[in-house]
Design a protein that fits this description.
With about 110 residues, the protein is mostly beta strands. Helices cover about 5% and strands about 45% of the residues. It has 2 domains: about 70 residues, Roll (SH3 type barrels); about 25 residues, no CATH class. The strands form 3 sheets. It has a 6-stranded antiparallel β-sheet with strand order 6-3-2-1-7-8, with no helix packed on it. It binds zinc ion.
Amino acid sequence: MARIKKGDIVEVIAGDDRGARGEVLRVLPKQDRVVVSTVNLVTKHENAQRAGRSQMQGGRIQFEAPIHLSNVMLVCPKCDRAVRVGYTVVDGKRVRVCRNRECGAVID
Ligand SMILES: [Zn+2]
């Protein structure tokens, strides 16, 4: 099971966006990367004609570039902190738990 899943809120712990939080939009398991809403924004200069999208104006497009999993931590929905994730089994299902000692919430 993945440590981070689509829809999770994560906090960036390294790099230019350190401290920023966002929702996981996409997980790229093979690359160990995630795409996080409003994090690691890059601007692409696109030629509208070449892109073949006449309804678009061309020019600059901002989008989120994937960042490495090691640069993000899950934000626990209960204690609202960037936490390490552990695992436990509930009703035969493997679920994630918050490793914050005062919290320990089951996350899923
Ligand atoms: Zn917690």
